Amino acid sequence: MDRPSIPIIPVPPRHALDGSVLVHPPSDAESGAAVSDQYGRPLRDLRISVTDRCNFRCVYCMPRAHFGRGHAFLARAEILDFDEILRVARLSVALGVRKIRLTGGEPLLRRDLDRLVAMLAMLPVELTLTTNGALLARQARALKSAGLDRLTVSLDALDDDRFRAINDADFGVADVLAGIDAAVAAGFAPIKINMVVQRGRNDADIVPMAARFRGSGHILRFIEYMDVGATNGWRLDQVVPAAEVVRRLEARWPLAPLGENYRGEVARRWRYRDGAGEIGLIASVTQPFCGDCTRLRLSPDGHLYACLFAGRGQALKPLLRGAADDRMLTAAIAGLWRARNDRYSEQRSAATAGLDKVEMSYIGG
Ligand code: SF4
What's the predicted TM-score (pTM) here? Predict the structure, then answer.
């Protein structure tokens, strides 16, 4: 689908008291230049969480003990509607965003999601989505025809018992594999498959998962278990370092490192020397990548977060539902990013692990 060029919003000239036209320096929005943060990192990626609800209760993200019966999810009136989401996205594109990822909770739970996809697909961005795959078989075709470019599917184990124990909602591996097949049939390929590896829980699936997706064209990514949020009881000894994952795979198949596709890519890429494709390692704990982090996150109720491990976000809803014009909203987004100096993964320690951090199920991974 041909994307239209970025619409630069003309700003009416302002007049000085003596009537002369005030010339103001072009802001980032008008120059189309990406706004940069305190470390010179440009704003390039916007991750939009469209719901805080999920049909899974993954133990590393949404443990049932904290997100079970009685948990207060956001009420419908609190959640941004599609026009509000589009407005934030449009203004963020003018500030440099080139990639939008739809997340959750589980984004496929959001009603009429394909309609939002069609609205966002009008922007000059790469439009992607991360899902747990259980509802994908029913929605893949509609998402594709609405203009979604790429899909990432989470699958944390190939062993059905281990998988059901991790998602803690009795979904089987077959449900997710059926979603992946439907996505391929709808035209999504390659698909990125994300596996969060926890020692003693699913690290026995590292080699079987690699065997399953080698030669498939899909890209399997192994994610180091992270201390996201404040509810998953994270411990460092449960982390399987990316280097160990590579060693385990190399015991079966020789690998070679690949370069990054673009600045800020989270995964370190490796290829099978026998040509069976590539894998990725997302090593936030042992090989942090904050130096090139270009990601901003929007929560379902309109808070902006400058880091996955942030303690608090900036509320945009009062501006969105108040009298703020695009210029004021743009200034709020740009201001947050310019002031940004987050580098949590480089500063992580036993002390920081217990900090009160935003939940991943609220702002997406
Ligand atoms: S820890 Fe924060 S700053 Fe670092 S890569 Fe993750 S989201 Fe970006």
Answer: 0.90
